[in-house]
## 1
Amino acid sequence: MEMEKKKVLEELKQKFPEKIKEISVQFGDESIIVESGSLLDVVQFLKNEPCSYSMLLDLTCVDYKGQEPRFEMVYHLYSLSNKQRLRIKARLAEKDLWIDSLTSLWKNANWLEREIYDMFGVHFKGHPDLRRIFMYEGFEGYPLRKDYPLRKRQPRIPLRK
Amino acid sequence: MKGSFITTKFNYILGWARKFSLFHYPYVTACCGMEYMSVVSPHFDFDRFGAGWTRFSPRQSDMLVVVGTITQKSAPVLRTVYDQMTEPKWVIAFGTCAVSGGIYDNYAVVQGIDRIIPVDVYLPGCPPRPETVLNALIRLQEKIQKQEQEWRWKRRKY
């Protein structure tokens, strides 16, 4: 099993030498940092044989306020045949919050990406229906960003004091 | 004086009739619903106190039981449900979230349903015990008995 993991990572490094910025192993799970522009190519390679990371477990975003680049997209992949996980990260600058959508590869990316758009304001290239999913029409701002005011309320109907 | 005696008695009888024929509409959104279900089921039995009829239609019910967290997104829905209910109507805020927002002091949650609709009985607890729920119902019945009843032929003061 260990051999298998190493092989995947080495193959990845060979195939995309300048697009993979960093590979690190923590508690037996690998995580790689890719250039945000080439995310779709790398993920497509990982999904198909022989790596066969065929399952998108989760897709989320982290706001590192004060750092540059500020946002980091995190993708969790799982290989059913090899029984191993892989974490893919991509950094995004605040000025250019665009990244490739994975809806062409996985159907479940649709709603996950809508959630990230709703909560962090990251835009996804090629997403079929990029709307808010949790919050309502007319909600302003992105509530999971660190600079969203904690006690800010945006009611839909007038509230009594 | 004679007339006022009759009015008082009528008021009392109407209150007595109303407090034992509460048709309730459960607006269940969260985990408090489990506790609500156990209360309406035979073990604790809401029906012993005359509130057995669960009507899943606001137009035929007169007690709104708001069970669980109300978000800003669903606030207009709750408001509509309340407006659709016919008079006389009463509201129980069931659980801490409905009372005050509870632990959810954030962008999404309404901090207590009394910001949207008037509330008669506040029932705290996370979730409240079934005995507490029954106690809340009894308190509401006391309130209904004591209050001045509205009826169709009554001249309105306002």
## 2
Amino acid sequence: MTQENIQRLELAVGCVLFAFVVLRFAKKGRISFRYTTGWLVLCALGVFASLLIPMFAPVAEFLRLSPTVFLVVVASIGSLLLFLQLTVSISGTQRRVNKLAEENALLREKLERLERLERPSDN
Amino acid sequence: MLYFVRNSSVSSVSNAHQTTEFVVTTRPLVLVPALNEQATIAEVVRSIRDRGLDVVVINDGSSDQTAELAKNAGAVVLNLKVNLGVGGALRCGFRYAVAQGYKSVVQIDADGQHPVSHIQNLIDITSASSLHLVIGSRFRYEDVVMTLPTHRRFAMWLLGLIASRACKTKITDSTSGFRLISEPLLGEFARSFPNHFLGDTFEANVVAGRAGYKVKEIAAPITDRKVGTSSSGAGRSIILIARSILVVVFGLHFRIQKITA
């Protein structure tokens, strides 16, 4: 087996293993359906791309990279973009949680005040 | 909707809360963000109430009896079900104050470090000079500075330098948790206020100064923590201070409306 084929196989196995980890997390309910499907699609793309590495040869050659390294570079850039998107998503979620917690606290206080008003004998 | 002004007695303050939803007052509301401060909170609340001031304790997800003790001592308690940090707790308090018609708030720590008697100094200086933000500084007493480790003194000096430049007045304690904030800055902070480390103190002071609000610092003594320890370790503090400085230097901080003359 050539060096390139070994690398292709390693990439494909890596993607499959990662897909198993994602599925395990999903089964435990630690990743929502939306993100599970997203990660699985990415894993499938990884396997697909590793099998079709020779197709990237012209572009890789133009960039003076081996096809496998080219694929790893593309995957790394994709991962960085994904992390950025997730950071944006987390920041938004954090803002919403903060707002929700504040609203909850203010409404509880208002409710308690109104309840006190309805029971003047308690004052 | 009923509007009225109240200034003096504690009893009228209590009644006011029970008879109307919206009260316009010239007295500040005292905000006490608290996280697991059951050892000191009741004493702090009682000492504030004894001075005829309304007090709101923002219980920032405490797992102890902080909320119950504060309520029994006479405070209005805003219970945050998740821990938002001091900034998040304060913003909740600012929103409450604005909704209730208060024109200014005093922020004070729940650990009893700030002498409640000095709240009046903040109020007096604000009234006399129409200020928007008055910071109580522990470092205006020189002997306090000397007790800090060198790296902390340097950090405080650097933060003070940046805050002073932004506020166009000398700031020695830009991380002070003892402040008076009045309208229209209060309204701006109720809309937008950060909850990361130093965001609620240093960054907020810089933002207020850059937006043209009138800031002043006065001396305010600080006592040792009665119970517990400070929440931030030395290594982490240095990293977070560096981050805050970068945020301010590169103008990445939160934005508020500039004051109109």
## 3
Amino acid sequence: MEPQLSWYLALSAVLFTIGVAGVIIKRNVIAMFMCIELMLNAVNLTFVSFASFFQDVTGQLFVFIVMTVAAAEAAVGLGIIIAIFRTRESLDVDDASILKL
Amino acid sequence: MLALLFILFAGLAIGCALAVVAQRNPLYSAISLIGVFISLACLYVMLAAPFIAAVQVIVYAGAIMVLVVFVILLLNVEHDDTRRTRIGFLLPAALVLAAVLIAEVAFILVSVDRGSFPASSASSIGSTASIGSQLFTSYLLPFEITSILLLMAIVGAMTLARRTKELSPNARVIPGAQLLASNIVDSSKPLDDTTAIETDTVEEAARLLGINSPRDASKRD
């Protein structure tokens, strides 16, 4: 039995929901950041499976662009995390509830 | 055969994703997340997208996760300290999320049943050549916008992570010795007097500057 499109979509939904639950549950900024990366990857899996299903390269192109955006997000996000840690000495998001460095 | 491979890699991905959320130590979460990326790359190979699979391993598991692990080690926060009880309202949220998850998976599995992939999986859809030719012709504008975004990210990361307001711009620091401009040490000197004063240790420089020694700051924890 060959894998069906719905299998990949179901896997993507499961991964995305785990990522959402992680963002809600976790309190460490870096752990929340990694859960966001997990959600991005779930969406990427959907893109690639639809690209393979419709035999169209556009989906894979946008996966490429999503990866670039994720890399930019990693650089800026980790810079923000370091700046917050310098002033607050903590990675807990509850300690950074004031929108001020 | 392919179904077995799918079940193997999907199970690995879900297990590692659960471990990302379940681990207290962010370093273990990062290692689990690398497992998710690797298994997703294997799934991309099964979906006839070898270029995306390679980029997934190189960019995600290589670059981004190395950056994350580096920041975790740099900040050196191991203790996910005592959990204050926010579980009270998180438990209903978790139940709702689980219900949504089960509902959407059931919906997908029931309604999208005609999902057989096209048989011609040996086509050149996922090859590097087709992706490159499309990327530089039809999708040139998103490509250029992405490059501008990367430039903004570089500048933003440098601006955010730079340490500011520490020393006077006249301070001279070279390896092996601490050379300080004399108007830092003695504020009665005029501002453009940059005669160097040499100190041998960080402590001595900190004492001259009247700031807390970094050794003392590291001794605190």
## 4
Amino acid sequence: MDVLVYPKFHADNREEALRKLVDFTFTKGYVKETYLDAVLEREKVFPTGLIIKGEYHVAIPHGDVEYVLKPVCAVGVLEKPVEFQFMGDPNQKVQVSVIFLLGVAKADAVVKTIAKMVELFQKEGAVESIVNAECDEEIRKIVINELSID
Amino acid sequence: MSFRKTVLCVCSTSLATSTQYLRTVEDIAREIKVPVKLQNIASQTDQLEQWFEKKLPAHLVVGSPFAALRKRVPQEIPVVDGIPLLTGIGKDKVVAQIKEILLKK
């Protein structure tokens, strides 16, 4: 699964954030044009916001496999947190600072990257270091380092 | 003959978060030496209902979101919230729950 890092960006809301990140993966050939709607619709029914330890929270939006051309994990850091709903309870809100947009194609291809991603969520200070990184290059370094499979 | 415990791992697509639940249960089962049979289930389909309709075995269901899932699983089968396995918050408690359920005779 390829890991892409999107430059730190601003979004007023969840839809805008997802649109920018999905467009990024679309222009790079990872997903079909229809993926955006799939991701937005799914997020409404099966929210992906996650409350993790520490100050900053994450989301792992994704759509169905039929819209994905190549498996991908696109990481986007927001300048200001954007509200998502909590995966564990849709009635609870999460202020998300880092989005891990997943393009899941087949189970086998993605299991290891998802495992690394979950490790990152639970590693003390890891998400914080991504949010507080000085520049996009630093974000990229941290993310690639944490998510790469040895 | 070994008696494998069947564990259903459930998330919406059965491709992303449930694979993580599956991995975790697999590790736990290996650690406590309980043979398990693991099955990914997509909650966005009726796979879950089909499973119970066909009277297939299930000793434990791990998945999310918990509240919606609990309603779809027969009461006698334990359901454990998978989210702590992703976030780390409350993870130890969930791992202990899974161990306890798997170790039951």
